[in-house]
Amino acid sequence: MLIINADDFGRSQEETDVALACYKQKRITSATAMVFMKDSRRAAELGRDAGIDLGLHLNLDQRFTGQVENGLLQEYHDRIIRFLTSTKYSSCLYNPALRQEFRYVYQAQVDEFMRLYGRRPSHIDGHHHTHICTNMLLDRIIPAKERVRRTFSFGPGEKNLLNRLYRYLVDLSLAHRYKLTDFFFSLPQSLQENRIARVWELSKIANVELMTHPVNPKEYAYLMSDSYGSALSELETGNYASL
Q: pLDDT for 63-74, tens place per residue?
C-alpha cells in the first residue's frame, strides 16, 4: 500500500489550499496538520469538510504563528526551539533539563488538534522530523501503539555506515512501540535521484509512505501530472488510518 502524505497542512493558507487541491484530485491520500499556526483554524474547518485523513505534524522547532493564549506553552516551546536549533546534531542529543517541556508541548499540540478536528490524529510525524528527536524517544512521550512516521529509507551505499546505524537503531526503537510503514521516502529526493520507480515497486509488496510538500511548485506539478496519475492507477493507495 502507498500512502502519499502532504506535510504542513495549516501552516499557511497557501500550504493548506494546495494540499486540499491535491486531495480532491486524488493525488495525495492524507496530510499532517500543524496547530497554533497562522492557518490552523481555517485548515481544520476545510479538512473536516473534505474528509481528508489527518495526522499531527508536531512542531518543535518553529515558532507558533497563530494565537497562543497559554503563556507557559509559549515559554516551553521557545526553550525547546532554542535547544533543537542550537546545533545541527541537537536532535540526536538528550537534554534532561527539558523533559517536562517536551511532554507539555507535545500534549498541548495533541489537545489543540483534538479541539480543532474533534478527533485524535490518525498518525504522528514531526516538522523536520523532530518527533523522533532523542528526548521524544527516550522519554516515550508519544503513547504506545500510535501510528508514527519512521526515518527515511535508503538503499545500500546511499548513506555512510554511521548514518545507517543511527537510523536502524531509531527505527528499531520505534517499531517496538508504534505502528510504522515498512519504508518512508520523500518525493523530491525520489525524483531527483531517479528512485521513484523503486517507490512504486516497493509499494506493491509493502506499506510505503511518500512525503510531499505540494506548496513546492515542482512537487505540485509532478503530483498533478499525467505520468504520476497513471502510476497511481496501478497501485493500491491508502492512509495511516488503514495501516
A: 999 999 999 999
